[in-house]
Amino acid sequence: MEHIKTYYREEVQVNGKKLLFEGPISSEQIDCYDYHPGLVAFRQPKEQKKALMGIAELPEGRINVAVDDGMIVGYVTFVYPDPLERWSESPLDNLIELGAIEVAHEYRGAQIGSRLLKLSMYDDAMEDYIIITTEYYWHWDLKNSGKSVWEYRKIMEKMMNKGDLYWMATDDPEISSHPANCLLVRIGSRVSLEDVQTFDQIRFTDRFLF
């Protein structure tokens, strides 16, 4: 399918600061920004900034960011599913994954993640996609948050709901390995019933095994 990217931006007062929310942004735009040193959930800052630039160059890749005075303090990524996950085996070319969402620690609690997700769904092209995110408790910042696994799960699910992603059942082994793990999905309004049925077959590959 054709990957259309329509740029959106908005400025929002957050805790007395004017933050810029924008995207999808290009690799060149990312390179022009500073990168908050506290964004270390997946890689060290320098490597993660480079990874975001790489995603932005992909036809389907989308990077939306929260920026404070020229510095990226939060981001969300959308890409095709990881080749190592079952979702990549899908024949659907309109199945994309919310690959990562991260907000610098001192900016948390201000609904920046929720605002990034809302911004992501402004784009009408998202109505053509099935969007998934796989949440694993071992990726969550339980130590710094002071939250239990279940408290953090509730926060993550509430945030994802702001982007219209909701829980769906699956027999995926990695997700099923812990009850706090979950699959959340947004099905665009223009996704065909046939594509939804194909997606359901991926969610439950062992449906007919007894």
From TrEMBL:
InterPro entries: AcuA, Acyl_CoA_acyltransferase, GNAT_dom. The keyword Transferase applies. Gene3D superfamilies: 3.40.630.30. One of its GO terms (molecular function) is acyltransferase activity, transferring groups other than amino-acyl groups. Residues 19-173 form the N-acetyltransferase domain. GO terms for biological process: acetoin catabolic process. Coiled coil: none annotated. Keywords: Transferase. It comes from the Bacteria. Pfam families: Acetyltransf_1. This is N-acetyltransferase. The lineage of its organism: Bacteria, Bacillati, Bacillota, Bacilli, Bacillales.
